[in-house]
Amino acid sequence: MAKPRTIHACQACGAQHSRWHGRCPDCGAWDSLVEENFAAPRASGAAAARSEGLARLAGAAAGDEKPRRLSEIDHDASPRIATGEPELDRVLGGGFVPGSVVLLGGDPGIGKSTLALQLAGRLAAGQRSVLYVSGEESAEQIKLRAERLPGLGPSLQVLTTTRVESLAAPIAELAPSVVVVDSIQTIATDAIESAAGSVAQVRESAALLSATAKRLGAVLLLIGHVTKDGQLAGPRVLEHLVDVVLTFEGDRAHAFRLLRAVKNRFGSTQEIGVFQMAAHGLEPVANPSELFLEERSTRAPGSCVVPLLEGTRPMLVELQALVAPAPYGTPRRTTLGLEDARVALLLAVLDRRSPVDLLSQDVYAKAAGGVRVAEPAADLAIALAIASSRLELALPPDTAAMGELGLGGELRRVSRVDVRVAEAARLGFRRVLVPAVCEREWRSRESGAGSRSKSECELIPIEEIAQAIDWLRDHGVRVRPARGPDVPSKSPS
Ligand code: TYD
Ligand code: MG
Fold first, then answer.
1. 315/235 same-domain check
2. Which residues of the chain have pLDDT under 50?
3. Which ligand is closest to the CA of 146, given by its number?
4. Measured between alpha carbons, how far is residue 279 from residues 99, 150, 283, 396 in Å?
């Protein structure tokens, strides 16, 4: 009998090593190597059954594909499958491509199963054959969830299993056009001995499933868990195997969720989808700006609105800052939804290039609503929010700001000013602070277009940060500090 071969596979990057290391020599992750039996031989009966199942599953006899001329290939032959979820279709670039493998990742409890069941149910209602495979929940649990979701087709086929091999027969029988697997970490193939969720299992199971899907021209939607640091759990290998990687993100404490394409072989990775988790499943949010600005306080200092751009989609987001004297030692700098390094850099620019003094101040900065802001166009708004809190001057409520800040304090160009300004105008903003170069371009375009396309928004050109602070000093609304010497401390008893 052949000796079983053991390998040590890194659960973070998928690298395989012949012996154990405390730290993966490939990716440097600590304590990530797990011993796995690689294709250990089994009892002969089981092995025969297994190879038969696998053969049925992976199918395709060798040599049944022939090379074709590029000119002979018609890409319109298989039109996209619209999912009935406008936000999802937008991210996918118009729907699923038949025969593609899509990976949907996200934190636990974010709503991956809900989204998957919702779209599976909608597709089933549209007379498509859909198979929903769950290795995590019982059929009763799925039914309970389905009862909360409107518009699900009664013909949706549900299968609860954790074995890849037991999918062979139902897939062959139903010939579904969409197969959902929730989740890839709970499904295992008998071909490999290691536990479900290990790198080898995930890779092998995903490879078998995707070979089947490709052969049948079915869409395979795999749900994947995400580790604490935001990687798709274990298998980076999986990202190479699939055609589309979607991530579902958002703060669980907040209702809204963002769907992004990290990789998309059939479309752009620029578009995002916005959903709101409600009592009856995920609802699309067509106008996210309204949602993000709903709870804005227009009278408090330390707040500035920025028109961000996600793909082709503008979104107004409120950025907030709180500056307070540091009682002792090194001042604290805490951020939420913004990058630490960016805020530190903006603080240094404000401190050196403007009259705002922040040296011995604690600074707290966040993006409201649980949004994560990465666009450099938000620099000016972050800086203004910080200055507004420090100077106790609230920005006028009808004012937004955008622009990238250089280390010299100069304002740099942002892209698609027209789209951003239009969105700000739509939500009632009347003034937008923009880099001077953008304002010049805007003016020449408006004069070219004649008076008919005049915007309702006034663009205020800013050359450098000190000029923006001057503007704030001239137009800001002075707010009395909430707590000061005039507030009685405690009534004598
Ligand atoms: P779930 O979809 O199971 O998340 P995942 O599969 O990513 O782990 O859970 C979503 C959460 O949303 C869960 O905490 C319950 C909640 N929820 C709603 O608020 N409304 C609904 O209609 C449904 C189905 C779930
Ligand atoms: Mg789930």
1. no
2. 40-46, 60-63, 451-452, 485, 487-493
3. 1
4. 33, 11, 10, 36
